[in-house]
Amino acid sequence: MNPSGFVANLIHMIRRILFILAFISIIASVYAAFIYAPTEPKMGHIQRIFYFHMGTVWVATVAFIIVFIASIMYLWKGTRKWDILAYCSAELGVLFLTLTIITGSVWAKPIWGTWWTWDPQLTTTFILWILYIVYLVLRSSAGNDTKKAKYAAVFAIIAFIDLPLVYISARVMRGISPVVFGPGGGGISPEMMNALLINMFACSLLFVVLLLERTDLERMKDAVARLKMS
Amino acid sequence: MTNSSTNSDFDILAEELKKTYGNFDALRGVSLKIKRGEFFTLFGPNGAGKTTLIKLLATLTAPTSGSLRVFDYDAKSEVQSIRTIIGVISHDTYLYENLTAFENIKFFAELYGLLNIDNRVSTVIEQVGLKSRMHDLVRTFSRGMKQRLTVARAIVHEPKILLLDEPYTGLDLNGAQIFGEMLSDLKSQSRTILMTTHNIDEGLGLSDRVGILVKGKIVFDSPASDINPSNFKDLYISNVEGS
Amino acid sequence: MNKVLAIIKKDIVTELRTKELFSSMLLFALLIIVVFNFAFGFSVEILNLAAPAMLWIAFIFAGILGLSRSFALEKEGNAIMGMLLTPTDRSLIYAGKMISNTIFVFIVGVITVLMFILFFNYDFVSTLIPMIPIVLLGSIGFVSVGTLFSAMAINTRLREVLLPILLFPIIIPVIVSAVKLSGEVLDGNTIFDASASLKLLIAFDIIFVTACAVTFEYIIDES
The complex's ipTM? Predict the structure, then answer.
């Protein structure tokens, strides 16, 4: 089962480096957010949480795109590695999205005066979160059952296609027609932009490292189950 | 080694079939050749992979690896062609309880895309001896009658190959006897038949060849004429326990 | 196409004989409306505001009940296997089941609207007729995904419990747009006064009928 010694060593080394890089960049991101970036004049210090907020939502988005693609690949190829990738990526996606929602709420309380509002973006985020929790319930109940793993894959595909429609319906519900993405641009200083990019990079690295570890764990579980069987 | 593509004497030609469910190996390399018109009975304990093998042959599921040709059609690329020439009888009836016998068989005949349906359906129901109950709901049938109607469902499209998965399950003595007579009828119509069962008292008399499947592998395969029925039980037990 | 018709015919004959789906769905819808009435304390203002939402909640809960039952019937005697053994394309099986489910859910929907008109004194003609396309589009959207998911749920340990959990978050666009459209109609406007909702509902129907027809084979076939 082991790849040849050299390749194995190389992979091991790359993963070591990734791990160290992720660790360093997390520290850098904390520095960038709390010390390097200037204080936003209107919102004050609370705005700093936005860097983590954006970092985590970015990773969650990437994670759910991976779930979608891996699910399609799993139905097409039927190989377990795609199933594992989809499952693990969904887990991390939910984790990061939970962090997004928490940081968002912490930010919203002093700025908007409330933890939560039902505006289209938040509503969609909330339903997104629910959809992938449902996916996890479905997928984890499947275990090694390939048939149920396919159910989860189909659900992931249907859920992903549904998201734009959920967003539109959240807007329809509130009767909001135009929508402006982002803060309108221009208001961000270069230092803020740098801090944001560093945070997004750090979160991405953390995601990659966690995803590698998590898929490895799943593969090891498979190996153990196999040994138990025989 | 024979080349499978030129080997049309064989209706079922499986080589090294493997089927894995998650971490469980249901079939671990099954090779099987069944000649046209042969009645092959595959014995094996529960969990040996008998149903999995039938499902593979019936194209209900695809093998993890290995090659399979049924009636010289490739089981990967010519699935729909295989479905038109096989019939399956299982311990489940595959019938709708709230439809009449006639409606049931007609429904499946329509899905097989048959022509002149009403005639064919009446004929086949008559053939299994249910003419008088043709327009009664299946719900009101006894287990034995349901099993006869199941035979009608399986042969309505005049399949070349019949796959029987534990067909005796749940039949009483009388039902089993009638079913046995129907089987020998079907056999005389020069169909290729593969039957699986865990009960060694069933099917030995009808078979041309018998095999034993244990833990996803065929461990015994012999012409039925070489087997002394009185010794078969010991033979079976030694094979099951030996592997 | 004949095969799709055969499946629809089979489902309709079964239903006419047993009336299982209709009776349970209708009774359920009726009960929900009655319970809402009690819960709102028969207050006319609240009822008028909540009417469209109430209608669709009653309708969708009843529909979910019918969907689970519809696939449970296929599982009795494992008749679905008999269908899978035939050389029938899986998307045709989906089409057949989906259309017959839509017919049932649609009829229940129309009757629910009728009960609604009766109980809450809406104008018969000007309410029922514009409601029909909404109920039809809503039924298609909800049943398209529902048929796929009920085929899934029936094979899991949770069974009937799983279906609403899977279905509700996905059909939010259907609920939102159908409630909005019904609201316009009950307020005396036309469905074109909420054209964004109408487009959303139609888009949902087209997208999910297609997506579900494509993915159905992975659900229904053995792995």
Answer: 0.90
